[in-house]
Design a protein that fits this description.
This protein is α/β, with parallel strands linked by helices and 431 residues long. 26% of the residues lie in helices and 20% in strands.
Length: 431
């Protein structure tokens, strides 16, 4: 490849183009910064991106650039959240697993793909590294591919390779991916983790997210046996279980013996462990998040979180009232797939209250809140006060169960709301 500067590379972007930026912890920030420097000469450039972890707000997210760049997020994160909340950008609701299809069938056409890839191997292939997810389809369909060829990006296997001949402009750099490390779980997180871990069987195939509660759950299953991994996000917590032999993928039906993911985010040590590790495969998110593929693994367990849960079991996970906070991501894909799996289970794990003391189990979702998982799909819900199973329970029975794991100081008000809403069908269950 012939390497150029970032400013030279982004000259290939035209006004009116749609630019898709790779995500996870390897956002191509050098290319984004160079693109932002062209704000005076560009108009109506749409920026599409998914799950992003960065250390600062995206460089194109400035009110004065509103006519140059329009943010169209697939999964809103901190780098773009304030900009969108201020009305300068928006979010397109869609199941994450369906996004590659939108690129491929032209419903959401991509003109330019920004990626942050590894150095090429001896055959000229670069790895997308820690973010295959929507990038594979973006590169496949884009008119122009611009790459940060990054010495610090791990080389990963699976359907996440691009030959150097497919890259139109390359910028050589050495920018480590953002490191994400979590400390020991808090007492609340540990209690939630234990409640969920008790329901996960040996031989389960896991999908689990990122953060304190997922780490606590992983701590709680460290003595399990023959677990598998088929997930969106590879994290330090699952790497620990792989190293300890707890996750051995021996009972999986899809890629037995192999850990499957679509992206990775964690510590520097984790990135070093997954580099050139042939026991792992990274795929396009349309592959990992296909519910029917997920369902082929026995005892699939999908573990997700929520912003609010109402008394009927509706799960809000994408917004705080009307304010968009994230998106559906892969929650629906995995909740549906795991529910179809033989012996599969789905979990929503959340603290009973926010850090500011606001109830998360509520009588009704906040006005404008979005329903990510419907009450028809919800199975297990866990807080630090216990875990309840809602499937096949009536509305009144669900309300009673959820109140039992709400914060004790919130239960009286929730009972009053349930009595008013469900009448005698709830009252007769009180004792």
């Amino acid at each position: 490849m012939k390497y150029v500067s970032a400013d030279e590379a982004v000259k290939l972007v035209r006004s009116g183009d749609t630019v898709c930026c790779q995500g996870s912890t390897s956002v191509p920030v050098l290319l984004q910064e160079a693109l932002a420097r062209r704000h005076a000469e560009l108009r109506d450039v749409q920026i599409v991106s998914g799950f992003n972890v960065t250390t600062a707000e995206a460089p194109f997210c400035k009110p004065e650039y509103k006519d140059s760049f329009l943010v169209n997020s697939i999964f809103l994160c901190a780098d773009q959240r304030k900009h969108v909340a201020a009305g300068y950008g928006s979010m397109t609701p869609c199941f994450l697993g369906e996004v590659p299809g939108l690129f491929r069938n032209g419903e959401l056409p991509i003109d330019v793909a920004f990626i942050n890839c590894s150095l090429p191997d001896e055959n000229g292939y670069c790895s997308y590294g820690i973010s295959a997810d929507i990038s594979v389809a973006a590169v496949e369909t884009a008119r122009v591919v611009i790459a940060q060829v990054n010495k610090s990006i791990p080389y990963l296997y699976g359907e996440c390779l691009i030959h150097e001949s497919k890259i139109d402009a390359a910028v050589l750099c050495d920018v480590p991916p953002v490191a994400m490390e979590f400390g020991e779980p808090t007492p609340i997180e540990a209690a939630i983790g234990a409640n969920v871990a008790n329901e996960i069987p040996d031989g389960a195939t896991l999908q689990i997210g990122v953060g304190g509660i997922p780490n606590a759950i992983l701590n709680g299953i460290k003595h399990h046996r023959h677990l598998g991994l088929h997930t969106e996000a590879m994290t330090d917590g699952v790497i620990r279980l792989i190293k300890e032999g707890v996750i051995d993928n021996s009972l999986k039906k899809v890629h037995p013996g192999i850990s499957v993911a679509s992206l990775a985010l964690g510590s520097k040590g984790m990135y070093e462990f997954i580099d050139h590790n042939k026991d792992m495969r990274f795929f396009d998110v349309a592959y990992t998040n296909d519910p029917f593929r997920i369902a082929r693994n026995p005892r699939a367990c999908a573990i997700n979180s929520a912003i609010e849960v109402d008394l009927t079991g509706q799960i809000c996970a994408d917004s705080i009232g009307e304010m968009i906070f994230s998106s559906v991501g892969g929650q629906h894909d995995f909740m549906y797939g795991a529910a179809l799996s033989e012996g599969g289970k789905t979990f929503i794990a959340l603290p009973s209250r926010t850090a500011k003391g606001k109830a998360k189990i509520v009588a009704n979702l906040a006005p404008g809140a979005g329903v990510v998982t419907t009450r028809f799909q919800t199975q297990y819900v866990a807080t630090e006060y216990g875990i309840v199973y809602l499937r096949n329970k009536s509305l009144a029975q669900r309300a009673k169960a959820l109140i039992s794991i709400a914060h004790p100081d919130d239960r009286e008000e929730l009972e009053k709301a349930a009595c008013k809403r469900f009448g005698y069908s709830f009252l007769r269950l009180k004792d």
